Amino acid sequence: MSRIELSDVSKRYPGGVLAVDDVSLDIKDGEFVSFVGPSGCGKTTTLRMVAGFEQPTDGAVSIGNEDVTDLPPYRRDTGMVFQSFALFPHMTVAENVAYGLEVDGGYTDAEIDERVQEMLDLVQLPDVGDRKPEQLSGGQQQRIALVRAIAPEPKVLLLDEPLASLDKKLREEMQVELRKIQQEIGITTIFVTHNQEEALTMSDRVVVLNDGQDEQVGAPSEVYDEPVNQFVADFVGTANFFTGKVSASGDGGASVDCGGVELDVERTRFDVGTDVTVIVRPEDVSLGGGPNRIEGTLEIARLLGSATEYRVETAGGQEVVSLSHARRNVEPGDDVSVTIPPEDCYVLEGTVDGS
Ligand code: ADP
Ligand code: MG
């Protein structure tokens, strides 16, 4: 088990693309860290530099306090699972799991058998060892790919969108299971996903990447509740943005003038006159009267299962999204108002347009 350290790591591909731009990270021993960001932001490239399949153009990678920057993949002691987690089709499940142990060497046949069984037990598939991969479901194959990677007891586990090909329900089950297994064996893990919900629910910390740079590194609640910029706010969940200027600020609270809508916010560290963006999560917006009441018209109500999403167009022409567990008797076209508690207004300097 080991920490992973990236120091000022950059990667420019031969064609000229700067895929990773000066990223530094310190991942603690036993930590589960997700890399999340839109397609092409550099998640896979960063992971492959940790694994050793890509060489950084600049910077250094260390695993377990050892500088591995110049070591080939097989000397870095990592276990990796890819999105296309292809098991070897001609081998049995047990042979697949044993594969890494045999490549590693140094295990007796009896030790290998024992370890394979231990791994199959770990993912609650004790009896599938003699089957061929094609005789397993997608989710079962995914579990086997995972234990194939961890059987040789690597120092770190590197997962590149391993659940992306599973359907929603199975993916959610596997999220829970994967996290349980990771905690059980305490292995330092980097998990790459483009799915923000997956990153938030599974991780100790989340690294939000954009254009090769780490925009924010923090606990899931930090990046969700206190995003450092609009990109992070927007990427890790749905966000309502209100742009305006701080119009009053004092010990009792502050106000932001958002052109026609005056929002009371609990506090702001910005001076009166500063251009700001107020960020409000949909679950903090409710239909009805109360503080920060904004009048509008219901555009659409969407039942999402346990919650309903209401999109309201304000008199000023802005769409405000509200998410509620209560179902309301309203129809598109109805006059409605929304209300936002001042303590749920999060204020960032600057406006969405980047000024
Ligand atoms: P992600 O995994 O976040 O989708 P990648 O790390 O795969 O992103 O890619 C980051 C950027 O690097 C993209 O612009 C991609 O097109 C480019 N890229 C990835 N692999 C290569 C490669 N082998 N050669 C050249 N450019 C690449
Ligand atoms: Mg990728």
TrEMBL record:
Annotated localization: Cell membrane
The reaction(s) this protein catalyses: D-xylose(out) + ATP + H2O = D-xylose(in) + ADP + phosphate + H(+); tungstate(in) + ATP + H2O = tungstate(out) + ADP + phosphate + H(+); L-arabinose(out) + ATP + H2O = L-arabinose(in) + ADP + phosphate + H(+)
The keyword ATP-binding is annotated on this UniProt entry: yes
Recorded GO CC terms: ATP-binding cassette (ABC) transporter complex
EC number(s) stated in the UniProt entry for this protein: 7.3.2.6, 7.5.2.13
Location (main, coarse): membrane
Family matches, as InterPro entries: AAA+_ATPase, ABC_SmlMolc_Importer, ABC_transporter-like_ATP-bd, ABC_transporter-like_CS, Mo/tungstate-bd_C_term_dom, NA-bd_OB-fold, P-loop_NTPase, Transp-assoc_OB_typ2
Membrane-protein topology: Peripheral membrane protein
Sorted UniProt keywords: ATP-binding, Molybdenum, Nucleotide-binding, Transport
Keyword Transport set for record: yes
Pfam family, one: TOBE_2
A molecular function (GO) term: ATP binding
Enzyme class: translocase
Domain ABC transporter: 4-236
Superkingdom of origin organism: Archaea
SUBUNIT field: The complex is composed of two ATP-binding proteins (WtpC), two transmembrane proteins (WtpB) and a solute-binding protein (WtpA). The complex is composed of two ATP-binding proteins (XacJ and XacK), two transmembrane proteins (XacH and XacI) and a solute-binding protein (XacG).
Family recorded in the similarity comment: Belongs to the ABC transporter superfamily. Carbohydrate uptake transporter-1 (CUT1) (TC 3.A.1.1) family. Belongs to the ABC transporter superfamily. Sulfate/tungstate importer (TC 3.A.1.6) family.
Purpose: Part of the ABC transporter complex XacGHIJK involved in the uptake of xylose and arabinose. Responsible for energy coupling to the transport system.
Protein name, entry field: Molybdate/tungstate import ATP-binding protein WtpC
